[in-house]
Structure to design on (714 residues):
């Protein structure tokens, strides 16, 4: 017997790498190419450090209120955590405690099975169709809970509100969590369904559309009773997950949401023209509604293109996994960055003798 | 059947209240009365907000290295989390997975049983002696892990390194976690024992001695293999618990540790004279090595004194719990704050007809 026999055995999630290369174009972790609102800067640079000696407001009430107003909800329908990963982890812990498996798509955010392993929950992966679309009837089976991203990651495909409503109707005995990390890039949020379905939790993040990956803030929205339970679990884990400074600057971001929307529009415009350019180069380009595209080329090996891009200082995401190993997930950066990407790929395809339009 | 049947049932931890009163003296949550180093201010107010759009360094490597140097350890012996509460929660999850109960003192940090409930671990509370001292032989029984604060909270009493070494020797099959949240206020850290015992984890916090309660940073120190396991569990929960800004300002704090030490010395001086004054007023004053004192008066009801202080705008901590309901935990504030406290209590005792020296 040893202390090592009492360790929890886990297969940890591997996040996208954060390489430091000269002149690198970083298109691998879906960060926003544009910084946060100028108001964020003003607030940050005028913070009185003496505040740091005091504990922050445990539930970030002021920020919570601003978000409730933004979403047209009551304050007690809003939960905040240290990035949407923490919000997801606490949501699994709070809502998915049945005996049946948790359901999520087989091609999806790779953290979901990791949470299940960590908390010793069983899960079943629902198979996507060959074109990566979700067959909503597959979610009509016994379960302890359902979770899927919308738009899905890494495919970028969007599910309609009607489809989500059907999943909610079919599963009123379970919590259905819709992970809207990328919803601000052109999708329609299902927050409006919260009034109709008490088994719905919507999770969003400040990391992508609000350029806050470095500041760590995630959000869960739902009915009052479910959110209260989430707070009970959070308060059994960590009383103060969101520091004082993050609360202040996130509030500035919410109060200047127009800035976020304009930057998202810029990213959407860039994404749409990149889709056309990649299709013209012969790529298969599922119709992404996120700040990335997920693409493959019939004549070029995914891993090989990934490595060629990397050698050229362009970092994208590639998984050596069945079903998606021919695909690359490419974050939408600035127009200049995408021009460099497209120029490199065009040249590379020519060198490889691939047929383009 | 309903989604409510799949909820995790918990009794959440209740943190010290954060009242907002005019002219209040806040001595209830052991915050540092002095702000962080001036270097922290300089760093904070010059941060480029454009950095926030990028994910932070997942393991806070630069900060981790600075702390390793500070403690005379290797980088891979240092773990960082979102406040020591998160570090504690992840440590329970990582190390306490046996079938036997987890052991901790019956009068101790009230979060420990909350973590056990949350993660469905059994626990047994080891009874302190009547003077609140720990009988180390009581930790010599089958267990899945041992945890205690040193100095203990809320008593403030310190266990010697010899006593800790004995507990470690008696429990080489379990992880022993020493929670040193208050160690910088005059106690001797047991970090030096890490070299000798691979079943030791030491947890510290930036909240108290480094005036970082509002910025959220906790630390675990231990052998390389144990720390790697803790990172695996953390990476199964949340990849990026420590935001970019906190990493930057915490680094500034570590690099100016002299400032922290001087402020701790000031607090210790204040504490020692307050102990004498309270004893002179007839209080029982266990010999606290923390930035608080835990005191009771033989002739005055604890709850009554708590409420009288509160009415006077002086907020301290009181638990309506068996064994400690006659005690108040009073944070050591500035000299001026403690003067006001002592003046009020002297007057109050006179009015109540209590005998003082």
């Amino acid at each position: 017997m040893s202390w090592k026999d009492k360790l929890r055995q886990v297969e940890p999630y591997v996040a996208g790498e954060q390489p430091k290369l000269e002149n690198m174009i970083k298109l691998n972790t879906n960060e926003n190419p544009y910084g946060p609102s100028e108001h964020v800067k003003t607030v940050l640079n005028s913070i009185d450090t003496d505040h740091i000696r005091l504990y922050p407001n445990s539930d970030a009430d002021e920020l919570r209120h601003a978000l409730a107003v933004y979403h047209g909800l009551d304050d007690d329908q809003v939960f905040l955590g240290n990035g949407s990963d923490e919000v997801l982890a606490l949501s699994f812990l709070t809502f998915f405690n049945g005996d049946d498996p948790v359901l999520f798509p087989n091609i999806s955010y790779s953290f979901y099975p990791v949470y299940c392993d960590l908390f010793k929950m069983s899960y079943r992966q629902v198979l996507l169709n060959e074109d990566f679309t979700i067959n909503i009837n597959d979610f009509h089976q016994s379960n302890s809970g359902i979770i899927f991203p919308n738009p899905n990651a890494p495919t970028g495909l969007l599910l309609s509100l009607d489809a989500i409503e059907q999943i909610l109707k079919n599963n009123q005995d379970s919590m259905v969590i819709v992970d809207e990390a990328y919803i601000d890039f052109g999708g329609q949020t299902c927050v409006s369904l919260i009034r109709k379905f008490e088994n719905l939790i919507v999770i969003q993040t400040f990391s992508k559309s609000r350029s806050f990956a470095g500041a760590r803030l995630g959000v869960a929205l739902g009915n009052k009773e479910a959110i209260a339970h989430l707070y009970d679990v959070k308060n059994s884990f960590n009383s103060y997950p969101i520091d004082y400074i993050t609360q202040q600057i996130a509030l500035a971001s919410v109060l200047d949401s127009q800035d976020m929307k304009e930057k998202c529009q810029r990213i959407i415009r860039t994404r749409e023209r990149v889709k056309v350019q990649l299709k013209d180069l012969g790529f298969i380009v599922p119709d992404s509604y996120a700040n990335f595209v997920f693409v493959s080329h019939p004549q070029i090996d995914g891993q090989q293109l990934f490595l060629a891009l990397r050698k050229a200082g362009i970092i994208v995401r590639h998984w050596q996994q069945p079903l998606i190993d021919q695909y690359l997930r490419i974050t939408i950066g600035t127009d200049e960055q995408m021009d460099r990407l497209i120029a490199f790929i065009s040249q590379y395809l020519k060198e490889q003798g691939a047929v383009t339009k």
Q: What stands out?
A: The longest strand of chain B covers residues 200-205. Residues 257-280 of chain B form the longest helix (24 residues). The radius of gyration of chain B is 21 Å. Residues 108 and 153 of chain B are 5 Å apart (CA to CA).
